Amino acid sequence: MSGNAFGKLFTVTTFGESHGIALGAIVDGCPPGVELCEADLQHDLDRRRPGSSRHTTQRKESDQVRILSGVFEGKTTGTSIGLLIENTDQRSKDYAKIKDQFRPAHADYTYHHKYGHRDYRGGGRSSARETAMRVAAGAIAKKVLAAQGIRVRGYMSQLGPIEIDFKAWESVEQNAFFCPDAAKVPELEAYMDQLRRDQDSVGAAITVVAEGVPVGLGEPVFDRLDAELAHALMSINAVKGIEIGAGFAAVAQRGSEHRDEMTPEGFLSNHAGGILGGISSGQPIVARLALKPTSSITTPGRSIDVDGNPIEVVTKGRHDPCVGIRATPIAEAMMAITLLDHWLRHRAQNADVQVSTPRLPQR
Ligand SMILES: Cc1cc2nc3c(=O)[nH]c(=O)nc-3n(C[C@H](O)[C@H](O)[C@H](O)COP(=O)(O)O)c2cc1C
Ligand SMILES: C=C(O[C@@H]1CC(C(=O)O)=C[C@@H](OP(=O)(O)O)[C@H]1O)C(=O)O
Prior knowledge:
By secondary structure, the chain is of the alpha+beta class. The chain has 8 helices and 18 strands. The radius of gyration is 21 Å and the shape is globular. The structure holds flavin mononucleotide and the ligand C=C(O[C@@H]1CC(C(=O)O)=C[C@@H](OP(=O)(O)O)[C@H]1O)C(=O)O.
């Protein structure tokens, strides 16, 4: 196992390099009888796709997905779903100059030492191009969850130094940033335009929210839902931090403030982020991701080559000046995959559990 699979009952395995022939995924554990077609996956793939605004990499991929197996007469069969996206716009010559160099903050140095042989074209397997397949698999998970009343959505909550308050879900899909505050978009655009002129990159934060999650998903000890969510979200390229609910702000809170008090009408706050004891509480699950700035920039930086000589690296080519701009659909996908896996596990073990205590209304 080369660490390319995720999940226990609903599992996702991916293959393919950024400049190889194609990317693919094998999705196992999807319940049978789910109506599924390529269009169900394409919407989220289009949201993630490179080259769709001037603020992202200019690599132009249509990311048209094909369902190769696991669907018959428009419905999932319960067997492995095979997915394929062809690469069509590789420009491997961009990487010829840095083939024997290590870009600081990319995976070149670690892949070189781990494997002794690496596909330098586009970073090979280390490229975030791989996340297209997670988004395709995540769209399947979203569809199954939606039938259970569970909805996973995300938005950009910070771009570099610019903090973004949540205003409206409707705004999120109406700009290139997944920004929930339409009034902030011109500031984000101006910041990105200056950043490109500066030949630099910047980090970002993404917030992902799952609503309608029933109480009970998760496991009490090792596979705690928060631990598995952190695993899933941290496995996205360039993610350097995850918060659930209050996250690191909990450090400065007092117990009397942090605890989410309960009334028969529901919880009065959600500092827990919808998870208590590793198990969903029925409140919205809220996670925040910190993404680092892109490593591939044209500002010269010090590094070494494969022979250990000091060099100056300048990475030309087509790169995202802020990788967080395209990360929202990826984060949604990883949350949806994790939740569906736990939803199936919970159903398998606890479908017959009867509790006479009423459940708190969701708010
Ligand atoms: C959506 C997305 C797009 C990315 N685009 C680029 C890019 O254009 N250039 C680049 O150098 N890194 C890009 N990255 C980040 C690299 O893939 C990542 O930094 C690299 O794999 C090293 O892994 P690490 O940052 O997780 O340690 C992107 C990441 C994401 C999530
Ligand atoms: C291709 C995608 O993003 C790529 C992610 C990436 C990286 O290093 O992660 C580097 C760039 O690759 P290339 O130099 O081949 O264009 C991005 O364009 C994609 O997301 O589909």
